[in-house]
Amino acid sequence: MATIYYEKDVDRAFLEGKTIAVIGYGSQGHAQAQNLRDSGFNVIVANRPGTANARLAEEHGFTVHSAAEAVAKADVIQLLAPDQHQAAIYRQDILPHLSENKVLMFSHGFNIHFDQIIPPDNIDVVMIAPKGPGHLVRSEFEKGAGVACLIAVHNDHSGHARQIALAYALGIGGTKAGVIETTFKEETETDLFGEQAVLCGGVSELIRAAFELMVSQGYQPEIAYFEVLHEMKLIVDLFYQGGISYMNYSVSDTAEYGGHTRGPRVVNEASREAMAEILSEIQNGSFAREWLCECLVNSPVLKKMRQRDHAHPIEVVGRNLRRMMPFVKPKEVL
User: Fold this and answer.
1) Distance between CA atoms of residues 272 and 256, nearest Å
2) Is residue 97 flagged as an active site residue?
3) How large is the average pLDDT for residues 298-318?
4) Does residue 164 contact residue 15 with C-beta atoms inside 8 Å?
5) pLDDT above 90: residue 267
6) 3-state DSSP call for residue 331?
7) Averaged pLDDT score across all residues of the chain
8) Among 30, 108, 113, 154, which one carries the catalytic annotation?
9) 319-332 pLDDT per residue, tens
10) Using CA atoms, how far apart are residues 170 and 126, in angstroms rounded to an integer?
11) How far is CA 142 from CA 2, 11, 131, 177, 310, in A?
12) C-alpha to C-alpha distance for 320 and 156, rounded to whole angstroms
């Protein structure tokens, strides 16, 4: 069984009187910085000047520092820049100011696990990883609730690294929902696999393939969109509330039987072999090397795939349909 921590297990005194620098004011940064401040901790923010995120931080009442200035002032440094930029920020702006007994913190283990960042031994290195996007971390906190988090300790120089990380989790609301013990290795590999095989990769490809087949068979694109994409939220919400069993309990008997008998024909042995290959590429570091090389040459493959996806018929049809449904609060990526 996993070790799970709640508010009763935390002593906020391990962070009181300390200055926390949040490096990056994007999805996680804006949420974590505001939650910590609202919890009574001393927070400063670093972001590239002149950017939309820097302006947003100022609108939220923060004075925006350079990363080097923030690290020099801080006792705890939470690095929330995108994975592909963290190593450069660390080398240029963080390492020169990492004096003994400071705490370096992450919300994803990528750069530590794949040795892009190798911290000195005389600091604490920990992770608090909310299991939800930043807007949810913020909105749940504002409701008086929280988003579950993962905690990991890479280096415990002070002897109090776990307690400091738990106090941070309390500050962003995570201890209301539960904080699960893990390792940098487990968090990184499972996170990447979930994204690639299911959440961002597998589901998206399944939806596109089903849409394309239905349209090729003469079904209206709008009907296909509703059947394989729009209604996905209804099913995911059931998963979220009660797992796969609750989903099957909630849908019709016809849907349940069809899912049980036909689903394994789509996700079959070949699918499982592909998943195993994906997991192996994550575990042996080949995906990390591929992604970092992609970033070094300004991400041409990623940019091409974004353009391809934006122009796909399911996106064109979906944009038009969502404009007719203001209740879904439609979003568009330009």
Assistant:
1) 22
2) no
3) 96
4) yes
5) yes
6) coil
7) 97
8) 108
9) 999 999 999 999 98
10) 15
11) 28, 22, 17, 14, 34
12) 53
